[in-house]
Specification:
The chain has eight helices and two strands; from the N terminus they run H-H-H-H-E-H-H-H-H-E. It has a two-stranded antiparallel ribbon. The chain is globular and about 65 Å long.
Length: 241
């Protein structure tokens, strides 16, 4: 009886969702008939960098950045949340807490020295990418991924690197809290989550685009620390019962 009721409910929900999607097709123009160049794209460009506007909404030279951080900030926050939940799931499923794994082949001097040189370069480039995300292609996610890649190299070249990883937990929590706080300030003071309440400045300069570079720095630090923690969890032994 329970199986019959479950099947009946599943069929009813599926029929409801299918009907809703089928009827919603009439609300949208047919594929290829809508001229997006004259509506959405042009509007975002004008709102961001139009020099005739006395105060552009974002002032970011990178239009993609303006859209990601300002106009779809809830989506960006959701992406960060998904990454956080994934890191939490990895930590819980692997029962993390033991010592880090030791590789059978010890890293030699050439590997250790080479990784230290390369790691510094990767870290600098990663930080550069998310600091300049409002000026050039890039941003918080690619910059954070580069930081995590440097951490992976350090794991491969240094058996004692686990002991130096605790600061990433603090960095991850702090950057996440600051993003939420900035978003709530915009929501309660200006009625918009992550509202750009700082001056836009001059388009093309490093200190411009208001809140956008600050958010990208926080996103880059959070993504980098979360991915680094996931790497650390995968390369750690579980607690022994």
């Amino acid at each position: 009886m329970k199986k019959f009721i479950s099947a009946l409910l599943t069929f009813a929900i599926a029929f409801f969702v299918f009907s809703l999607l089928f009827e919603s097709q009439n609300l949208f123009p047919k594929y290829g008939e809508k001229d997006l160049n004259s509506t959405v794209s042009r509007r975002y460009v004008d709102k961001s960098v139009d020099e005739n506007r006395p105060y552009p909404e974002t002032g970011s030279a990178n239009i993609v950045t303006s859209i990601v951080v300002n106009y779809r900030s809830f989506d960006t926050l959701g992406e960060i949340t998904v990454l956080f939940v994934s890191a939490l799931g990895v930590s819980l499923l692997l029962n993390i807490g033991g010592e880090r794994l030791k590789f059978r082949i010890k890293p030699n001097f050439i590997l250790r020295a080479g990784v230290r040189i390369i790691t510094g370069i990767i870290l600098i480039v990663g930080i550069y990418i998310f600091i300049h995300g409002h000026l050039t292609p890039g941003g918080g996610f690619p910059g954070g991924a580069m930081i995590a890649s440097s951490i992976l190299l350090m794991y491969l070249s240094d058996d004692n690197f686990k002991e130096k990883m605790n600061t990433f937990n603090i960095l991850e929590g702090t950057s996440g809290i600051l993003i939420i706080v900035l978003g709530l300030i915009g929501l309660f003071v200006f009625n918009s989550f992550l509202y750009n309440f700082l001056p836009s400045g001059k388009i093309g300069e490093l200190f411009s685009a208001g809140l956008t570079p600050i958010l990208y720095v926080l996103i880059g630090l959070k993504v980098g620390s979360e991915l680094s923690n996931i790497i650390g969890d995968f390369l750690s032994e579980g607690e022994k019962a």
